[in-house]
Protein backbone atom coordinates (compact mmCIF):
# COMPACT_ATOMS: atom_id res chain seq x y z
CA UNK A 1 0.00 0.00 0.00
CA UNK A 2 1.30 3.44 -0.91
CA UNK A 3 1.31 5.94 1.93
CA UNK A 4 0.84 9.61 1.17
CA UNK A 5 2.62 12.33 3.09
CA UNK A 6 -0.61 13.02 4.95
CA UNK A 7 -0.90 9.37 5.99
CA UNK A 8 2.68 9.39 7.27
CA UNK A 9 2.24 12.63 9.19
CA UNK A 10 -1.18 11.89 10.72
CA UNK A 11 0.05 9.47 13.43
CA UNK A 12 2.49 12.15 14.60
CA UNK A 13 -0.23 14.80 14.73
CA UNK A 14 -2.67 12.62 16.62
CA UNK A 15 -1.74 12.55 20.27
CA UNK A 16 -2.75 9.47 22.30
CA UNK A 17 -5.27 11.61 24.18
CA UNK A 18 -6.81 12.75 20.91
CA UNK A 19 -7.08 9.23 19.56
CA UNK A 20 -8.74 8.15 22.78
CA UNK A 21 -11.07 11.10 22.52
CA UNK A 22 -10.17 13.61 25.16
CA UNK A 23 -13.18 14.90 27.12
CA UNK A 24 -13.93 18.05 28.98
CA UNK A 25 -16.28 16.69 31.60
CA UNK A 26 -18.73 18.36 33.92
CA UNK A 27 -19.39 16.65 37.25
CA UNK A 28 -22.02 13.94 37.38
CA UNK A 29 -24.43 16.08 39.37
CA UNK A 30 -24.13 18.98 36.95
CA UNK A 31 -24.64 16.66 33.99
CA UNK A 32 -27.69 15.06 35.61
CA UNK A 33 -29.19 18.44 36.40
CA UNK A 34 -28.58 19.58 32.81
CA UNK A 35 -30.18 16.42 31.44
CA UNK A 36 -33.25 16.98 33.60
CA UNK A 37 -33.46 20.58 32.44
CA UNK A 38 -33.42 19.41 28.83
CA UNK A 39 -36.34 17.09 29.55
CA UNK A 40 -38.27 19.99 31.06
CA UNK A 41 -37.49 22.15 28.03
CA UNK A 42 -38.73 19.36 25.78
CA UNK A 43 -41.93 19.06 27.81
CA UNK A 44 -42.55 22.79 27.44
CA UNK A 45 -42.04 22.51 23.68
CA UNK A 46 -44.68 19.77 23.50
CA UNK A 47 -47.16 22.17 25.07
CA UNK A 48 -46.89 24.49 22.06
CA UNK A 49 -48.84 21.99 19.94
CA UNK A 50 -52.64 22.04 20.11
CA UNK A 51 -53.97 18.53 20.53
CA UNK A 52 -57.71 17.95 20.05
CA UNK A 53 -59.11 15.09 22.13
CA UNK A 54 -59.60 13.02 19.00
CA UNK A 55 -55.87 12.75 18.36
CA UNK A 56 -54.83 9.41 19.76
CA UNK A 57 -51.23 8.41 20.35
CA UNK A 58 -49.40 6.61 17.56
CA UNK A 59 -49.59 3.38 19.55
CA UNK A 60 -50.09 1.14 16.59
CA UNK A 61 -47.22 2.62 14.78
CA UNK A 62 -47.62 2.46 11.03
CA UNK A 63 -45.28 4.20 8.68
CA UNK B 1 -3.35 -17.22 -3.65
CA UNK B 2 -3.39 -14.56 -6.32
CA UNK B 3 -2.84 -11.02 -5.06
CA UNK B 4 -6.11 -9.17 -5.56
CA UNK B 5 -6.04 -5.67 -6.99
CA UNK B 6 -6.91 -2.90 -4.56
CA UNK B 7 -9.79 -2.07 -6.92
CA UNK B 8 -11.50 -5.22 -5.65
CA UNK B 9 -11.93 -3.61 -2.23
CA UNK B 10 -13.85 -0.75 -3.80
CA UNK B 11 -15.90 -2.77 -6.27
CA UNK B 12 -19.67 -2.81 -6.23
CA UNK B 13 -21.70 -5.92 -5.47
CA UNK B 14 -22.51 -6.76 -9.13
CA UNK B 15 -18.86 -6.23 -10.12
CA UNK B 16 -17.58 -8.59 -7.44
CA UNK B 17 -20.26 -11.19 -8.02
CA UNK B 18 -19.55 -11.26 -11.76
CA UNK B 19 -15.88 -11.97 -11.04
CA UNK B 20 -16.77 -14.71 -8.58
CA UNK B 21 -19.11 -16.40 -11.03
CA UNK B 22 -16.50 -16.06 -13.79
CA UNK B 23 -14.02 -17.66 -11.35
CA UNK B 24 -11.53 -14.80 -11.66
CA UNK B 25 -11.00 -15.49 -7.97
CA UNK B 26 -12.68 -17.75 -5.47
CA UNK B 27 -14.95 -16.73 -2.63
CA UNK B 28 -12.32 -18.02 -0.20
CA UNK B 29 -9.63 -15.85 -1.80
CA UNK B 30 -11.95 -12.86 -1.65
CA UNK B 31 -12.99 -13.50 1.95
CA UNK B 32 -9.38 -13.99 3.07
CA UNK B 33 -8.29 -10.76 1.39
CA UNK B 34 -11.13 -8.78 2.97
CA UNK B 35 -10.63 -10.31 6.42
CA UNK B 36 -6.95 -9.48 6.36
CA UNK B 37 -7.69 -5.95 5.27
CA UNK B 38 -10.38 -5.53 7.93
CA UNK B 39 -8.06 -6.82 10.64
CA UNK B 40 -5.20 -4.63 9.41
CA UNK B 41 -7.03 -1.35 8.83
CA UNK B 42 -10.13 -1.71 11.01
CA UNK B 43 -8.28 -0.78 14.22
CA UNK B 44 -6.68 2.16 12.42
CA UNK B 45 -10.13 3.77 12.30
CA UNK B 46 -11.45 2.22 15.52
CA UNK B 47 -13.94 0.54 13.19
CA UNK B 48 -13.53 -3.11 14.10
CA UNK B 49 -15.35 -4.62 17.08
CA UNK B 50 -14.71 -8.28 16.25
CA UNK B 51 -13.09 -10.09 13.32
CA UNK B 52 -14.81 -13.27 12.16
CA UNK B 53 -11.99 -14.83 10.14
CA UNK B 54 -12.83 -18.51 10.67
CA UNK B 55 -16.53 -18.00 10.11
CA UNK B 56 -15.84 -16.04 6.92
CA UNK B 57 -13.52 -18.67 5.44
CA UNK B 58 -15.93 -21.47 6.34
CA UNK B 59 -18.84 -19.66 4.70
CA UNK B 60 -16.77 -18.79 1.63
CA UNK B 61 -15.90 -22.47 1.17
CA UNK B 62 -19.60 -23.32 0.94
CA UNK B 63 -20.07 -20.48 -1.54
CA UNK B 64 -17.28 -21.82 -3.74
CA UNK B 65 -18.85 -25.28 -3.62
CA UNK B 66 -22.23 -23.81 -4.60
CA UNK B 67 -20.77 -21.83 -7.48
CA UNK B 68 -18.88 -24.91 -8.67
CA UNK B 69 -22.17 -26.82 -8.80
CA UNK B 70 -23.97 -23.97 -10.52
CA UNK B 71 -26.07 -23.11 -7.48
CA UNK B 72 -26.17 -19.37 -7.97
CA UNK B 73 -28.03 -17.48 -5.28
CA UNK B 74 -28.04 -13.95 -6.64
CA UNK B 75 -25.67 -10.99 -6.61
CA UNK B 76 -24.93 -11.04 -2.87
CA UNK B 77 -23.48 -14.56 -3.01
CA UNK B 78 -19.86 -14.53 -1.87
CA UNK B 79 -19.85 -10.82 -1.01
CA UNK B 80 -17.96 -9.89 2.20
CA UNK B 81 -19.83 -7.68 4.63
CA UNK B 82 -19.87 -6.49 8.23
CA UNK B 83 -22.55 -5.69 10.78
CA UNK B 84 -22.84 -3.08 13.49
CA UNK B 85 -22.06 -4.65 16.84
CA UNK B 86 -25.63 -4.17 18.02
CA UNK B 87 -26.67 -7.26 16.04
CA UNK B 88 -26.39 -10.65 17.69
CA UNK B 89 -24.20 -13.29 16.10
CA UNK B 90 -24.53 -16.67 17.80
CA UNK B 91 -21.69 -17.66 20.06
CA UNK B 92 -19.68 -14.46 19.62
CA UNK B 93 -19.60 -11.31 21.77
CA UNK B 94 -22.19 -8.65 21.02
CA UNK B 95 -21.09 -5.63 23.01
CA UNK B 96 -23.50 -2.92 21.84
CA UNK B 97 -20.33 -0.79 21.92
CA UNK B 98 -20.57 -0.51 25.69
CA UNK B 99 -18.36 -1.74 28.52
CA UNK B 100 -21.19 -3.15 30.68
CA UNK B 101 -22.01 -5.55 27.82
CA UNK B 102 -18.46 -6.38 26.77
CA UNK B 103 -18.87 -10.09 27.62
CA UNK B 104 -22.42 -10.49 26.33
CA UNK B 105 -22.97 -13.52 24.07
CA UNK B 106 -26.26 -14.55 22.43
CA UNK B 107 -27.20 -18.00 21.15
CA UNK B 108 -28.93 -16.78 18.02
CA UNK B 109 -28.26 -14.67 14.96
CA UNK B 110 -30.11 -11.50 14.12
CA UNK B 111 -32.68 -12.06 11.39
CA UNK B 112 -30.78 -9.87 8.90
CA UNK B 113 -27.66 -12.00 9.36
CA UNK B 114 -29.66 -15.18 8.73
CA UNK B 115 -31.21 -13.64 5.62
CA UNK B 116 -27.82 -12.61 4.26
CA UNK B 117 -26.39 -16.00 5.13
CA UNK B 118 -29.21 -17.60 3.16
CA UNK B 119 -28.12 -15.92 -0.08
CA UNK B 120 -24.45 -16.70 0.45
CA UNK B 121 -23.13 -13.39 1.80
CA UNK B 122 -19.92 -13.76 3.81
CA UNK B 123 -19.82 -12.02 7.17
CA UNK B 124 -16.25 -10.95 7.96
CA UNK B 125 -16.65 -8.95 11.14
CA UNK B 126 -18.65 -6.91 13.57
CA UNK B 127 -18.19 -3.18 13.36
CA UNK B 128 -17.83 -0.62 16.09
CA UNK B 129 -20.54 1.75 17.24
CA UNK B 130 -21.32 4.49 19.71
CA UNK B 131 -22.18 2.83 23.01
CA UNK B 132 -25.83 1.79 23.19
CA UNK B 133 -26.32 3.48 19.80
CA UNK B 134 -26.11 6.81 21.60
CA UNK B 135 -28.91 6.18 24.08
CA UNK B 136 -29.02 8.93 26.71
CA UNK B 137 -27.29 11.39 24.38
CA UNK B 138 -23.49 11.44 24.08
CA UNK B 139 -21.34 14.52 23.97
CA UNK B 140 -18.09 13.14 22.58
CA UNK B 141 -17.04 10.94 19.69
CA UNK B 142 -15.16 8.86 22.26
CA UNK B 143 -18.46 7.41 23.56
CA UNK B 144 -17.58 3.90 22.46
CA UNK B 145 -15.93 0.75 23.78
CA UNK B 146 -13.56 0.89 20.81
CA UNK B 147 -12.72 4.60 21.05
CA UNK B 148 -13.87 7.41 18.77
CA UNK B 149 -14.73 6.42 15.23
CA UNK B 150 -11.97 7.89 13.05
CA UNK B 151 -12.84 9.07 9.57
CA UNK B 152 -10.98 7.30 6.73
CA UNK B 153 -10.75 10.61 4.88
CA UNK B 154 -8.97 12.26 7.80
CA UNK B 155 -8.26 10.49 11.06
CA UNK B 156 -8.48 13.73 13.01
CA UNK B 157 -12.18 13.83 12.12
CA UNK B 158 -15.09 11.80 13.43
CA UNK B 159 -16.65 9.08 11.32
CA UNK B 160 -20.09 9.96 12.70
CA UNK B 161 -22.43 7.96 14.85
CA UNK B 162 -23.81 5.80 15.97
CA UNK B 163 -23.08 3.39 13.09
CA UNK B 164 -19.47 4.62 13.08
CA UNK B 165 -17.72 1.40 12.08
CA UNK B 166 -20.26 0.50 9.40
CA UNK B 167 -19.67 3.76 7.54
CA UNK B 168 -15.91 3.86 8.05
CA UNK B 169 -15.43 0.24 6.98
CA UNK B 170 -17.28 0.79 3.69
CA UNK B 171 -15.45 4.08 3.06
CA UNK B 172 -12.06 2.44 3.64
CA UNK B 173 -12.84 -0.59 1.49
CA UNK B 174 -12.74 -3.01 4.44
CA UNK B 175 -16.12 -4.54 3.53
CA UNK B 176 -18.25 -4.29 0.40
CA UNK B 177 -21.31 -3.38 2.42
CA UNK B 178 -22.32 -3.09 6.04
CA UNK B 179 -25.49 -3.14 8.10
CA UNK B 180 -26.12 -0.29 10.50
CA UNK B 181 -29.04 1.08 12.45
CA UNK B 182 -30.83 4.38 12.89
CA UNK B 183 -33.05 5.64 15.67
CA UNK B 184 -32.47 9.29 14.78
CA UNK B 185 -29.56 10.03 12.47
CA UNK B 186 -27.32 7.01 13.06
CA UNK B 187 -27.28 6.00 9.38
CA UNK B 188 -27.62 9.42 7.77
CA UNK B 189 -24.88 11.08 9.83
CA UNK B 190 -21.99 8.59 9.44
CA UNK B 191 -22.82 7.96 5.79
CA UNK B 192 -22.66 11.72 5.14
CA UNK B 193 -19.40 12.19 7.04
CA UNK B 194 -17.69 9.16 5.46
CA UNK B 195 -18.94 9.69 1.90
CA UNK B 196 -20.78 6.41 1.42
CA UNK B 197 -24.21 5.66 0.02
CA UNK B 198 -26.65 4.42 2.64
CA UNK B 199 -30.34 3.75 3.04
CA UNK B 200 -32.55 4.23 6.07
CA UNK B 201 -35.55 2.05 5.22
CA UNK B 202 -39.16 2.69 6.15
CA UNK B 203 -39.92 1.72 9.75
CA UNK B 204 -40.90 -1.94 9.88
CA UNK B 205 -39.52 -2.94 6.49
CA UNK B 206 -36.41 -4.66 7.90
CA UNK B 207 -36.66 -6.97 10.89
CA UNK B 208 -34.85 -5.85 14.04
CA UNK B 209 -34.98 -9.25 15.68
CA UNK B 210 -31.59 -9.81 17.29
CA UNK B 211 -30.76 -6.11 17.38
CA UNK B 212 -30.32 -4.09 20.55
CA UNK B 213 -33.45 -2.08 21.22
CA UNK B 214 -33.03 1.62 21.87
CA UNK B 215 -36.53 2.72 20.93
CA UNK B 216 -39.13 0.18 19.83
CA UNK B 217 -41.04 2.73 17.78
CA UNK B 218 -38.03 4.39 16.13
CA UNK B 219 -35.33 1.75 15.52
CA UNK B 220 -34.54 0.70 11.94
CA UNK B 221 -31.75 -1.31 10.27
CA UNK B 222 -30.29 -0.39 6.89
CA UNK B 223 -27.35 -0.87 4.52
CA UNK B 224 -24.18 1.17 3.89
CA UNK B 225 -22.91 0.50 0.36
CA UNK B 226 -20.87 1.77 -2.59
CA UNK B 227 -23.88 2.83 -4.67
CA UNK B 228 -27.62 3.24 -4.66
CA UNK B 229 -27.89 0.08 -6.72
CA UNK B 230 -25.99 -1.89 -4.07
CA UNK B 231 -28.38 -0.54 -1.43
CA UNK B 232 -31.29 -1.88 -3.47
CA UNK B 233 -29.70 -5.30 -3.82
CA UNK B 234 -28.99 -5.59 -0.09
CA UNK B 235 -32.39 -4.24 0.92
CA UNK B 236 -34.12 -6.84 -1.24
CA UNK B 237 -32.44 -9.53 0.85
CA UNK B 238 -32.85 -8.08 4.33
CA UNK B 239 -36.41 -6.70 4.00
CA UNK B 240 -39.49 -8.74 4.72
CA UNK B 241 -42.00 -9.91 7.26
CA UNK B 242 -40.67 -11.35 10.51
CA UNK B 243 -42.97 -12.63 13.22
CA UNK B 244 -40.09 -12.21 15.68
CA UNK B 245 -40.23 -8.44 15.26
CA UNK B 246 -43.47 -6.92 16.60
CA UNK B 247 -42.77 -3.78 14.54
CA UNK B 248 -42.50 -5.69 11.29
CA UNK B 249 -44.67 -4.14 8.58
CA UNK B 250 -45.12 -7.52 6.95
CA UNK B 251 -43.96 -6.20 3.60
CA UNK B 252 -41.29 -7.45 1.22
CA UNK B 253 -39.12 -5.33 -1.01
CA UNK B 254 -38.25 -6.12 -4.62
CA UNK B 255 -35.62 -3.96 -6.17
CA UNK B 256 -37.04 -2.95 -9.55
CA UNK B 257 -34.71 -0.47 -11.24
CA UNK B 258 -36.28 -1.30 -14.59
CA UNK B 259 -39.46 0.46 -13.47
CA UNK B 260 -37.71 3.54 -12.03
CA UNK B 261 -39.34 6.82 -12.98
CA UNK B 262 -36.99 9.24 -14.74
CA UNK B 263 -35.91 12.29 -12.78
CA UNK B 264 -37.66 14.64 -15.17
CA UNK B 265 -41.01 13.18 -14.13
CA UNK B 266 -40.38 13.76 -10.43
CA UNK B 267 -41.31 16.65 -8.20
CA UNK B 268 -38.72 17.09 -5.49
CA UNK B 269 -39.23 19.55 -2.65
CA UNK B 270 -36.30 21.45 -1.20
CA UNK B 271 -35.50 24.65 0.61
CA UNK B 272 -32.75 26.60 -1.17
CA UNK B 273 -31.55 28.04 2.13
CA UNK B 274 -30.64 24.56 3.39
CA UNK B 275 -27.93 24.47 0.74
CA UNK B 276 -26.73 28.05 1.23
CA UNK B 277 -27.37 30.09 4.39
CA UNK B 278 -28.00 27.10 6.61
CA UNK B 279 -25.11 25.05 5.21
CA UNK B 280 -21.54 25.47 6.38
CA UNK B 281 -19.73 27.83 3.98
CA UNK B 282 -17.15 25.23 2.94
CA UNK B 283 -19.91 22.84 1.85
CA UNK B 284 -21.96 25.30 -0.21
CA UNK B 285 -20.10 24.89 -3.53
CA UNK B 286 -20.56 21.09 -3.40
CA UNK B 287 -24.25 21.41 -2.54
CA UNK B 288 -24.75 24.01 -5.27
CA UNK B 289 -23.12 21.72 -7.83
CA UNK B 290 -25.25 18.77 -6.70
CA UNK B 291 -28.44 20.80 -7.12
CA UNK B 292 -27.18 21.73 -10.56
CA UNK B 293 -26.83 18.08 -11.49
CA UNK B 294 -30.40 17.33 -10.46
CA UNK B 295 -31.77 20.37 -12.27
CA UNK B 296 -29.81 19.54 -15.43
CA UNK B 297 -31.29 16.05 -15.31
CA UNK B 298 -34.72 17.60 -15.43
CA UNK B 299 -35.85 17.11 -11.83
CA UNK B 300 -38.58 19.57 -10.89
CA UNK B 301 -37.19 21.16 -7.74
CA UNK B 302 -39.83 23.13 -5.91
CA UNK B 303 -40.40 24.79 -2.57
CA UNK B 304 -43.17 23.66 -0.24
CA UNK B 305 -44.54 24.55 3.16
CA UNK B 306 -42.56 22.49 5.68
CA UNK B 307 -44.86 21.19 8.43
CA UNK B 308 -44.01 23.04 11.62
CA UNK B 309 -43.65 20.85 14.70
CA UNK B 310 -41.17 20.72 17.57
CA UNK B 311 -39.55 17.65 15.98
CA UNK B 312 -36.49 17.55 18.21
CA UNK B 313 -38.36 17.73 21.53
CA UNK B 314 -40.99 15.20 20.34
CA UNK B 315 -38.33 12.73 19.27
CA UNK B 316 -36.28 13.27 22.42
CA UNK B 317 -39.31 12.67 24.62
CA UNK B 318 -40.32 9.46 22.84
CA UNK B 319 -36.74 8.22 22.83
CA UNK B 320 -36.10 9.11 26.47
CA UNK B 321 -39.23 7.34 27.68
CA UNK B 322 -38.53 4.18 25.69
CA UNK B 323 -34.81 3.99 26.46
CA UNK B 324 -35.57 4.56 30.15
CA UNK B 325 -37.75 1.45 30.12
CA UNK B 326 -35.28 -0.56 28.05
CA UNK B 327 -32.18 0.29 30.09
CA UNK B 328 -33.80 0.45 33.53
CA UNK B 329 -31.88 -2.68 34.65
CA UNK B 330 -28.61 -1.08 33.52
CA UNK B 331 -29.32 2.10 35.46
CA UNK B 332 -30.67 0.31 38.53
CA UNK B 333 -27.62 -1.98 38.68
CA UNK B 334 -25.28 1.00 38.70
CA UNK B 335 -23.37 -0.43 35.74
CA UNK B 336 -24.51 2.54 33.67
CA UNK B 337 -21.62 4.40 35.30
CA UNK B 338 -19.21 2.22 33.29
CA UNK B 339 -20.21 3.98 30.08
CA UNK B 340 -17.48 6.14 28.55
CA UNK B 341 -19.54 9.30 28.09
CA UNK B 342 -20.68 11.06 31.24
CA UNK B 343 -23.37 13.06 29.47
CA UNK B 344 -24.81 9.79 28.24
CA UNK B 345 -24.80 8.34 31.76
CA UNK B 346 -26.68 11.40 33.00
CA UNK B 347 -29.09 11.26 30.08
CA UNK B 348 -30.01 7.64 30.78
CA UNK B 349 -30.51 8.33 34.48
CA UNK B 350 -32.62 11.43 33.84
CA UNK B 351 -34.73 9.66 31.21
CA UNK B 352 -36.61 7.90 34.00
CA UNK B 353 -38.15 11.27 34.84
CA UNK B 354 -40.19 11.47 31.63
CA UNK B 355 -43.83 11.29 32.66
CA UNK B 356 -46.38 9.03 31.02
CA UNK B 357 -48.33 12.19 30.21
CA UNK B 358 -45.44 13.68 28.25
CA UNK B 359 -44.71 10.42 26.45
CA UNK B 360 -48.32 10.17 25.36
CA UNK B 361 -48.39 13.81 24.36
CA UNK B 362 -45.31 13.27 22.20
CA UNK B 363 -46.89 10.19 20.63
CA UNK B 364 -50.06 12.14 19.88
CA UNK B 365 -48.03 14.89 18.19
CA UNK B 366 -46.27 12.13 16.31
CA UNK B 367 -49.56 11.10 14.81
CA UNK B 368 -50.09 14.68 13.60
CA UNK B 369 -46.59 14.63 12.10
CA UNK B 370 -47.32 11.42 10.20
CA UNK B 371 -50.57 12.84 8.90
CA UNK B 372 -48.94 16.13 7.90
CA UNK B 373 -46.32 14.37 5.81
CA UNK B 374 -48.92 12.15 4.17
CA UNK B 375 -51.46 14.89 3.45
CA UNK B 376 -49.44 18.10 3.09
CA UNK B 377 -46.13 16.90 1.70
CA UNK B 378 -46.41 13.66 -0.25
CA UNK B 379 -49.69 14.73 -1.82
CA UNK B 380 -47.69 17.45 -3.61
CA UNK B 381 -44.23 16.02 -4.23
CA UNK B 382 -42.51 12.68 -4.74
CA UNK B 383 -39.54 13.27 -2.48
CA UNK B 384 -37.75 15.76 -0.25
CA UNK B 385 -34.16 16.85 -0.69
CA UNK B 386 -31.79 18.25 1.93
CA UNK B 387 -28.13 18.05 2.87
CA UNK B 388 -27.23 14.85 4.72
CA UNK B 389 -25.56 17.09 7.28
CA UNK B 390 -24.98 20.81 6.94
CA UNK B 391 -21.21 20.37 6.67
CA UNK B 392 -18.33 17.91 6.88
CA UNK B 393 -17.29 15.78 9.85
CA UNK B 394 -16.20 17.59 13.01
CA UNK B 395 -12.87 17.08 14.78
CA UNK B 396 -12.92 14.02 16.98
CA UNK B 397 -12.27 15.94 20.21
CA UNK B 398 -14.92 18.61 19.64
CA UNK B 399 -17.97 18.46 21.92
CA UNK B 400 -21.13 17.48 20.06
CA UNK B 401 -23.37 19.32 22.52
CA UNK B 402 -22.83 22.20 24.98
CA UNK B 403 -20.93 21.40 28.18
CA UNK B 404 -23.00 22.45 31.22
CA UNK B 405 -21.15 24.81 33.49
CA UNK B 406 -18.23 25.25 31.07
CA UNK B 407 -16.77 28.57 29.93
CA UNK B 408 -19.02 30.19 27.34
CA UNK B 409 -16.69 29.48 24.40
CA UNK B 410 -16.68 25.75 25.06
CA UNK B 411 -20.29 25.66 26.18
CA UNK B 412 -21.73 27.40 23.19
CA UNK B 413 -19.62 26.15 20.33
CA UNK B 414 -20.26 22.44 19.91
CA UNK B 415 -19.25 20.90 16.62
CA UNK B 416 -22.87 20.43 15.68
CA UNK B 417 -24.10 23.97 16.32
CA UNK B 418 -27.62 23.88 14.94
CA UNK B 419 -28.10 25.89 11.75
CA UNK B 420 -30.37 28.95 11.76
CA UNK B 421 -34.09 28.07 11.82
CA UNK B 422 -36.10 27.68 8.64
CA UNK B 423 -35.93 25.36 5.67
CA UNK B 424 -36.38 21.68 6.35
CA UNK B 425 -35.26 22.17 9.96
CA UNK B 426 -35.36 18.93 11.89
CA UNK B 427 -35.56 16.69 8.82
CA UNK B 428 -33.75 13.86 10.63
CA UNK B 429 -36.06 13.70 13.67
CA UNK B 430 -39.06 14.44 11.44
CA UNK B 431 -38.26 11.57 9.08
CA UNK B 432 -37.63 9.19 11.95
CA UNK B 433 -40.81 10.14 13.80
CA UNK B 434 -42.84 9.55 10.64
CA UNK B 435 -40.92 6.35 9.84
CA UNK B 436 -39.89 7.65 6.41
CA UNK B 437 -37.12 6.18 4.26
CA UNK B 438 -34.08 8.25 3.29
CA UNK B 439 -31.20 7.68 0.91
CA UNK B 440 -27.80 9.31 1.50
CA UNK B 441 -25.82 10.21 -1.64
CA UNK B 442 -22.24 11.53 -1.50
CA UNK B 443 -22.20 14.79 -3.46
CA UNK B 444 -18.76 16.32 -3.16
CA UNK B 445 -16.17 17.57 -0.71
CA UNK B 446 -15.68 20.42 1.73
CA UNK B 447 -12.28 20.93 3.34
CA UNK B 448 -11.25 17.65 1.66
CA UNK B 449 -13.99 15.83 3.56
CA UNK B 450 -17.12 14.28 2.05
CA UNK B 451 -20.54 15.89 2.16
CA UNK B 452 -23.79 14.33 1.04
CA UNK B 453 -27.41 14.81 0.07
CA UNK B 454 -30.31 13.02 1.67
CA UNK B 455 -33.44 12.20 -0.32
CA UNK B 456 -36.46 11.34 1.79
CA UNK B 457 -39.65 9.76 0.52
CA UNK B 458 -43.07 8.51 1.50
CA UNK B 459 -43.36 5.23 3.42
CA UNK B 460 -42.22 2.25 1.31
CA UNK B 461 -40.98 4.46 -1.52
CA UNK B 462 -37.50 2.91 -1.47
CA UNK B 463 -37.54 2.07 -5.17
CA UNK B 464 -38.27 5.69 -6.01
CA UNK B 465 -35.44 6.95 -3.81
CA UNK B 466 -33.06 4.39 -5.29
CA UNK B 467 -33.98 5.42 -8.82
CA UNK B 468 -33.20 9.05 -7.93
CA UNK B 469 -29.93 7.86 -6.44
CA UNK B 470 -29.04 5.81 -9.49
CA UNK B 471 -29.70 8.70 -11.84
CA UNK B 472 -27.61 11.04 -9.68
CA UNK B 473 -24.78 8.51 -9.55
CA UNK B 474 -24.77 7.97 -13.32
CA UNK B 475 -24.05 11.69 -13.62
CA UNK B 476 -21.51 12.00 -10.80
CA UNK B 477 -18.63 9.94 -9.44
CA UNK B 478 -18.50 11.10 -5.82
CA UNK B 479 -19.59 7.66 -4.65
CA UNK B 480 -16.58 6.14 -6.39
CA UNK B 481 -13.97 8.33 -4.68
CA UNK B 482 -11.52 6.65 -2.32
CA UNK B 483 -9.61 8.08 0.62
CA UNK B 484 -5.96 8.71 -0.22
CA UNK B 485 -3.66 5.77 0.36
CA UNK B 486 -6.40 3.16 0.48
Summarize the structure.
The complex is a heterodimer of chains A (63) and B (486). Chain A is mainly alpha-helical and 63 residues long. Chain A is built from 3 helices and no strands.
Main sheet makeup of chain B: 11 strands, mixed
**General form of chain B:** globular
Which strand order spans the largest sheet of chain B, edge to edge or round the barrel?
1-3-2-6-8-7-12-13-11-9-10
Regions with little confidence, pLDDT below 50 for 5+ residues of chain B? none
What's the end-to-end separation of chain B, in Å?
21 Å
Please report which band the strand proportion of chain B falls in: under 5%, 5-15%, 15-25%, 25-35%, 35-45% or over 45%. 5-15%
Separation, N- and C-terminal Cα atoms of chain A: 46 Å
Biggest sheet overview of chain A: none
**Mean pLDDT level of chain A:** 74
Characteristic terms for this protein:
heterodimer, A: 63 residues, mainly alpha, B: 486 residues, alpha/beta, two-stranded antiparallel sheet, 14% strand
Plain-language structure description:
The complex is a heterodimer of chains A (63) and B (486). With 63 residues, chain A is an all-alpha fold. Helices cover 52% and strands 0% of the residues of chain A. Chain A is built from 3 helices and no strands. Chain A has helices at residues 5-13, 16-20, 28-46. Chain A is elongated, with a radius of gyration of 24 Å. Residues 5-13 of chain A have low confidence and may be disordered. With 486 residues, chain B is an alpha/beta fold. Chain B has an 11-stranded mixed beta sheet with strand order 1-3-2-6-8-7-12-13-11-9-10, with helices on both faces. Chain B has a two-stranded antiparallel ribbon with strand order 4-5. In chain B, strand 12 (438-446) and strand 13 form a beta hairpin. Chain B is globular. Chain B starts with 12 loop residues before the first helix and ends in an 11-residue tail after the last helix. The relative contact order of chain B is 0.14. The model of chain B has no long low-confidence stretch (mean pLDDT 96). At the A-B interface, helix 1, helix 2 and helix 3 of A face strand 5, helix 9, helix 11 and helix 12 of B.
Amino acid sequence: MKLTRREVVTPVILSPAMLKGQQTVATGDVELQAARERLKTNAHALNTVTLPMSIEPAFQFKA
Amino acid sequence: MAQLSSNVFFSTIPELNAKLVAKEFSAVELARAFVERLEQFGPRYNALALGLRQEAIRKAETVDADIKRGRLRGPIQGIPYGVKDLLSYAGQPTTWGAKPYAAQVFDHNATVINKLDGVGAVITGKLSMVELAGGGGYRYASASLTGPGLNPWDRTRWSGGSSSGSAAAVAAGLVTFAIGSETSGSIVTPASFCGVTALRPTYGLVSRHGAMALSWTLDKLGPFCRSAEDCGLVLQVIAGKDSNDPGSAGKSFYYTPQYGRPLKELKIAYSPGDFTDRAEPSARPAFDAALGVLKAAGAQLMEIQWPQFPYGPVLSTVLAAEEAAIFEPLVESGKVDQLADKAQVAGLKAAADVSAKDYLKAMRIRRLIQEAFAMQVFSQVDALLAPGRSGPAPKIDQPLSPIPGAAPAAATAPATTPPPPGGFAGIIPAGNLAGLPALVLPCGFADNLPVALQVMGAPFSENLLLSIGREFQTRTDWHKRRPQGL
